[in-house]
Specification:
Layout (H helix, E strand, L loop, with lengths): L6 E5 L3 H13 L3 E5 L2 H10 L6 E4 L8 H10 L1 H4 L4 E5 L4 H9 L4 E4 L5 H12 L3
Parallel strand pairs: 1-2, 1-3, 3-4, 4-5
Helix pairs in contact: 2-3
Length: 130
């Protein structure tokens, strides 16, 4: 691995999707860290401050949902770091999309509208290619 390898934190509560995204991210040349819920995601960010280059964030999760994670990260950059957050969800409500961007998400992707190629392309917009 080179020094330019980027690290992506994937926060997704559906285990099969989490594994699929992890494999995809790694096959695109990135390092993947995974979290099954918002609590774990925030913990990973705090433990790896400055070491995570992008967060791929689901919104609908038990406990701390994605909007709460987004709110916490953007309100506490010294604790969690500053990085692009790409929301990846099946929620299509205009109000939720607006709130996501208002809270500071960099991108909002709908899972059912996206193939793996599209996801990699979106990630590379923020991280470049490895």
């Amino acid at each position: 691995m080179s020094d330019t390898t980027k690290t992506i934190l994937i926060v997704e509560d559906e285990k099969d999707l989490l594994e699929s995204y992890k494999e995809l991210v790694e096959s695109a040349g990135y390092i993947a860290i995974t979290s099954m819920d918002g609590y774990q995601g925030l913990d990973q960010l705090a433990k790896n401050i400055g070491g995570i280059d992008l967060v791929l964030l689901d919104l609908m999760m038990p406990g701390v949902d994605g909007l709460e994670v987004l709110r916490a990260v953007k309100a506490n950059p010294d604790k969690y770091g500053k990085m692009p957050i790409v929301v990846l969800t099946n929620m299509t409500s205009e109000a939720v999309i607006k709130e996501s961007f208002d809270l500071g998400s960099s991108s909002y992707l709908v899972k059912t509208d996206l193939d793996y190629q599209g996801l990699v392309k979106e990630l590379s917009k923020y991280l470049g290619s490895n």
